[in-house]
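Hi,

I'm pasting everything inline rather than attaching a file, because the server keeps stripping attachments. The sequence lines come first, and each chain or strand is labelled.
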Amino acid sequence: MPECYDMARPFVKWAGGKRSIINELLARAPDDLNSYFEPFVGGGALFWSMPRNGKAYLSDVNFHLVITYRMIRNNVDGVISKLEQHKKHHNEKYYAAAREMLSKATDELEVASLFIYLNKTCYNGLYRVNKSGIFNVPMGRYNNPKIVDAENLQKCAKFLTNVDIFQHGFSQIEPKKGDFVYFDPPYHETFSAYDGSGFADKEHEKLATFCKDLDKNGVLFMLSNSDNQFIRRLYDGYNMENVDASRFISCKGQERKKANELIIRNYIRRDEGKQDRKRA
Ligand SMILES: C[S@@+](CC[C@H](N)C(=O)[O-])C[C@H]1O[C@@H](n2cnc3c(N)ncnc32)[C@H](O)[C@@H]1O
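And the predicted assembly:
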C-alpha cells in the first residue's frame, strides 16, 4: 500500500488524464490482484494512486513519454538538475529551440527533461508532432509555470522502483490469471483522419477482442472510454457504469465539455454484493 501522505501525482499534464474520475476508478479497482498492467499509461493517474503489492508493468506507444518514465525511475536527480537549467532559460525563444531539440535529442536524460519542460510550458499540456516528428504545440500563456516539481518527481521515482516500463502497443502485454489491467485508450470520438491521432474504430474493435481473450484467461480488466452506442455494443455483457467527467473532448484539445465516461469491468468487488459477475 502506498502511504497517502507520500503519494506521487502525474508528472505531466496529459490529454484524457483521469485525475477527475480517480475516486470512481479506485472505488472499482479489484480487491485482490497479482501484477498491475497499464498499457495506455499517459500521465498514469490511476497508477500513482493504486495500492500495489505486486509487480507493475507500464507501457504506451509514446516514445518520449516512455523514456521520461524510465529516466525518472533511473536518474531522477539528473532529470531535476536538467529541468533547473530549462527553468533558468525559459522564454519564448528558448521554448521554440527546445521543440527542435526534442526531435534531435539522443541522450535519454536530455529527452526526459525537454519532454517535461515542454509539457509544463506548452498549451494545455498537449503532445503533438508534425510529419517530421517535431513537437509543434505552441507555448501556453502561463505567468509562472511549475517547470520543476522536485518533490513530486522524487516521489514518482520511489514509486517507480521495480516497475517495468515499455514502449509498445497495448496488445503486446502478457498478463496472467489473477493479474489486473487498466485500459484507458484514446476516447472513441477523438480519432482524427487528418493527423491520424487517436484510435480509429478498428483499434477499438481489436481492443475489445483482446479484452475478451483476457477475460477467458482469468485476467481482471477495467476499461474507461466515451459512453456511446458503439462502445456499449463492443462490450455488451460486461459490467458497465456511466460516470460524469469534465474532460477535453476534441482531438485538438481546444474544447472542454462535460462528457459521459463509461467504466467497463469483467469483475465486481466483494463490497458490491453477489451480483452476476459481468452484469452489475
Ligand atoms: C487517454 S490517454 C491515457 C491517460 C492516462 N490514463 C492518464 O490518466 O493520464 C491514452 C494514451 O494511450 C496511448 N496510446 C495510443 N495508442 C496506443 C496503442 N495502440 N497502444 C498503447 N498506447 C497507446 C497514448 O499515447 C496516450 O498516452
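Confidence is low (pLDDT under 50) at residues 249-254.

If the labels don't parse on your end, tell me and I'll reformat.
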